[in-house]
Write a structure and sequence with these properties.
- Strands 1-2-3 form a three-stranded antiparallel beta sheet, with no helix packed on it.
- It has two domains: 102 residues, Orthogonal Bundle (DNA polymerase, domain 1), CATH 1.10.150.130; 173 residues, Orthogonal Bundle (hpI Integrase, Chain A), CATH 1.10.443.10.
- With 295 residues, it is mainly α.
- The protein is globular and about 60 Å long.
- α2 crosses α4 and α6 packs antiparallel against α8.
- β2 and β3 form a beta hairpin.
- 59% of the residues lie in helices and 5% in strands.
Length: 295
C-alpha cells in the first residue's frame, strides 16, 4: 500500500506541476523503493530519514549493480519529494539537500577493518556511568549487527546473559542473536551496576537510557557514534550501519554462511545479504593485486 505522503506527492506532481505520466511513474517508483529500503534496512519511516540513510541507500544501489544514471535519477526524485514535504511544513529539513551523486561512486558499504573496530570500541572509558553505558552499546552493536532502531528499542528483559544471547523483535518477527564474551561482560557491568543509577523511573523497561534516565533516542545515539569516531581519529564515515556492515563482512570472512548472517541481520530476502559477498570478493581482489609479485 502506498504511503500517504507519497500518494499526496504523486497528486502534487500531476495537479500542480503538470508532470508527464512517465515522470510521475519514475519519481514515485524511486520514492517507493527508498521507503521499502528504509523499512527493511533502517526500521525507519520515510519522513524520519537522515542524510546518512540517503547516502547508504545510494551505495546500496551501486552495490546491487545500479548505474550511475539510476542513482542520479533517484537523488533528483528524493530531493523533489522532500522539498514537497518541507514546503507543506511536514518536515523541518530536506535530508537529501547538499548530497551529490558523486557520493554514490563508492559502490559498496563502508567497512571497518578489525583493527579499526578494536580502536573504535576502545574509545569509551569505563570510569563513569556514561563510559560504561556507551561501551556496552557499541560492543552490543558490533556483536550482533542489529539496526540502531532495534538497539534503542531493546528492553532489559530482552537480555539473556546467562545463555549468552539477546532477543531482538522488529516488524512482528523475533530473532535470537548470540553474543561474544566481551559484549556479555560489558552488558553485565552496565545492566547490573550502571543502569540502576541512570533510570529515573524504576518501572522504565528500556535497556539503554540517556543521562536523564529516559529511553535512548536515535539522534542521541548518532551523536555518540560521531563523538567516538572523532575521538578515535578514524577517517572513515562511521554510522551505526557501518558497524552492522562490518559485523556481516567479518563473519563472512571468517567462514560464516550467508543464511546464518541473513538470519542474524533480520533480512527478509537473501539478496539483501549477498552484497557482502561482493565486498569480500573485492577485498580479496585488492589484496591479490597488492601482494602478488606478478600482479
Amino acid at each position: 500500500m502506498m504511503n500517504n505522503d507519497i500518494a499526496r506527492y504523486g497528486a502534487y506532481l500531476a495537479d500542480e506541476k503538470h508532470s508527464s505520466q512517465n515522470t510521475i511513474s519514475s519519481y514515485l517508483r524511486d520514492v517507493n523503493q527508498f521507503a521499502d529500503y528504509l523499512t527493511e534496512h533502517q526500521e525507519c519511516e520515510i519522513r524520519a530519514a537522515q542524510p546518512e540513510m540517503v547516502r547508504d541507500y545510494m551505495s546500496w544501489m551501486q552495490g546491487r549493480g545500479k548505474s550511475a544514471a539510476s542513482v542520479t535519477r533517484f537523488l533528483a526524485s528524493i530531493k523533489s519529494f522532500y522539498n514537497f514535504l518541507q514546503s507543506r511544513g511536514d518536515i523541518a529539513a530536506n535530508p537529501a539537500k547538499g548530497i551529490t551523486a558523486d557520493r554514490a561512486e563508492r559502490k559498496y558499504p563502508e567497512i571497518l577493518t578489525a583493527k579499526e573496530v578494536e580502536l573504535f570500541l576502545e574509545q569509551p572509558q569505563c570510569v563513569d556511568a556514561k563510559g560504561f553505558r556507551d561501551h556496552a552499546m557499541l560492543e552490543l552493536l558490533y556483536a550482533t549487527g542489529i539496526r540502531v532502531s532495534e538497539l534503542i528499542s531493546l528492553n532489559l528483559d530482552d537480555l539473556n546473559l546467562a545463555a549468552g544471547f539477546i532477543r531482538c523483535a522488529s516488524r512482528g518477527k523475533e530473532r535470537i542473536i548470540p553474543l561474544y564474551h566481551g559484549a556479555i561482560k560489558a552488558l553485565q557491568d552496565y545492566a547490573k551496576d550502571i543502569r540502576p543509577q541512570l533510570v529515573a523511573d524504576p518501572a522504565e523497561s528500556a535497556l539503554f537510557v540517556n543521562m536523564n534516565g529516559d529511553r535512548m533516542s536515535r539522534q542521541g545515539f548518532w551523536k555518540i557514534i560521531k563523538y567516538y569516531q572523532d575521538k578515535a581519529g578514524i577517517e572513515k564515515d562511521i554510522t551505526p550501519h557501518t558497524l552492522r556492515h562490518s559485523f556481516a563482512v567479518h563473519l563472512l570472512e571468517n567462514g560464516a554462511d550467508l543464511r546464518s548472517i541473513q538470519e542474524m541481520l533480520g533480512h527478509a530476502d537473501i539478496s539483501s545479504t549477498q552484497i557482502y559477498t561482493h565486498v569480500v570478493k573485492r577485498q580479496l581482489k585488492d589484496v591479490y593485486h597488492k601482494a602478488h609479485p606478478r600482479a
